[in-house]
Amino acid sequence: MNTFHYLFPPKQKGRPPRFYAPPDPHSLAFVDGLTGRKLYREEIPVQAAWASNGLRTSGVKRGDVVCIFGLNSLEWISANYTILATEAIVSPANAAYQPHELLHQLVDSGAKAIFVAPALLPVLHAALDQAPEDLPLIRKRIFLLCPPDEKPVDTPYRCIEELWDKAAGTRRLTATEDMNTSYLCYSSGTTGLAKGVETSHHNMTSQLQLLRAPYEKLDYRDRILGVLPFSHIYGLTLLVHQPLTTGTPVVILPKWDEIKVLESIEKYKISWSLFVPPMLIALVNSKHFDNYDLSSLHGIQTGAAPCSPELIRAFESRFPIGYGLTETSPVTHVMQVREGSQHQGSIGCIAPTYQARLVDPVSGVDVQIGEPGELWVRGPSVMKGYWKNIEATRNAFAPGGWFKTGDIATVDDDGYFHIVDRLKELIKYKGFQVPPADLESTLLGHPRVADAGVIGIYSHAQATELPRAYIVPKGGLDKLSPAQQQQLADQVAQWIDDRVSNHKRLRGGVVCVDAIPKSPSGKILRKELRERAKSELGVEAIAALAKRQPKNSQGATAEEPVKAKL
Can you tell me which family this protein belongs to (predicted)? Predict the structure, then answer.
């Protein structure tokens, strides 16, 4: 069954729905949190069918790739279901893309059309100015993500509503093969250019069935906050699709804005929200937090990046943590609300329909309980493969269909998993593995640290990497003089020395910054931190740092034992 038919089952006389009872067709589905405009469930498939008629007339056919490039909006929702109704492939693009990044996705995917927000037209035009000659057709199929009355003056492009062709009627979809590609999301590209992840209709519908249990208590009386980017698989699955199975309205915000989020929770009585850890950090440290009535909020789900126990305790709320990747559509592990306080920092247990292994990345042997290993998963929501990239697909899978996540994890006797770090982000200090996420979690426990990012800097003097931390002071960097910043950095370094093993100490230094660079999905952009470190440090400076002998609170150096007081 294709994704469109799963969410909007065709009426079959005398036969009940196969997977779930669809909500009332007259129910509210999406609300623009800024304007109050509404989109009802019954409008979505009808308008998608009308617009798909116009999209086909423009030359888009079954199996073609169509890009969506814009911030969250009602029109983004409409474009998504229009493309599915056309039996084409949806390829969401990150609204924060620079021209060269957008161009890479357009060229790599072979997109035949694009829906774009008017505000992002300059980025699209700049990308197309750099485009090769064999990418001309997309110029003829540029459609705007806005109502007709918000079109830019003298624009040559039609908005999505102007694609409607009611005269052609509503076309019945064919029985699309389950394994046909429905989505082509692009991974974050931490190891190079972003790769297109092929998500099939079977992947998506399996994920929606998997998620029914955690969402079974939500209904039309609840309200979900839709602030996560729809272009990321986390927001795409859990905001654009899943709420349609429970009939729960989604209040859409175009992007993260601390005040708008707090206002929307109060105004719309939001009861459930999805965040990434950086958003939670911002709320925890917000001076406006107590100015709003947030009593309606009874459930928060976080994912896309590790969430430390310190952050969970700071938020003073029980909420489920999940885990997943673009390649797994995304959820593979879930934590129920009632379990959160008992297993803080865990990503939960393996989700229904999934299997998991923890494997030593060197020997390929499964590790023992409590020992770290690379997380491998297998299940019906795992991607088909990377778009037109046979080698990357081959490297991503182990025999038996096991997908290698690249994340280092542990599991306890009760089956609760903890993410330790990314396999390729581990810092190697004199043969010891230092997980940046472990240090970041500890740093967030410091009363004066609002956010943190850790990288390794290479010391030629000792032929090893040294852990280096970047921290955001609570209250803001601008409130501290250079001397006070250095004092805080020294205090934090000493504080860490007293709490971690010798090999994890911050020999690469501590630096105060105004913000930690992160992707829209909440991942720390360590490449940017490494580039910053290069500009801050020369070879000589790094050699000098290598000689630093951190001392603990009792005055002993890192290489000396602490003498017991008799």
Answer: Belongs to the ATP-dependent AMP-binding enzyme family.
Tens-place pLDDT, residues 74-113: 999 999 999 999 999 999 999 988 898 899 999 999 999 9
- Which of 374-388, 485-499, 521-535 shows the lowest per-residue confidence on average (mean pLDDT)? 521-535
Per-residue model confidence as pLDDT tens digits over 433-482: 788 888 998 899 899 999 999 999 988 777 778 999 999 999 899 999 99
Contacts of 363 (CB under 8 A, 6+ apart): none
Residues 6+ apart with CB under 8 A from 565: none
CATH class of 426-546: alpha beta
Beta bridge partners of 419: 409
Q: Which part of the chain has CATH 3.40.50.980?
A: 1-10+41-176
- CATH topology (fold) of 1-10+41-176: Rossmann fold (3.40.50)
Please give the backbone phi and psi of residue 77, each rounded to the nearest 5 degrees, phi first: -60, -50
State the span(s) of the chain assigned CATH 3.30.300.30: 426-546
Q: Is the pLDDT of residue 55 over 90?
A: yes
Quote the CA–CA distance of 382 and 401 in Å, as a whole number. Answer: 9
* Rounded Cα–Cα distance for residues 322 and 353 (Å): 15
Q: What is the 3-state secondary structure (H, E, C) of 53-98?
A: HHHHHCCCCCCCEEEEECCCCHHHHHHHHHHHHCCCEEEEECCCCC
For the purposes of burial, counting CB atoms within 10 Å of the CB of 477, is it exposed (0-12), middle (13-18) or buried (19 or more)?
Answer: middle
User: What amino acid occupies position 565?
Assistant: K
> 235: which 2 tokens?
């927001």
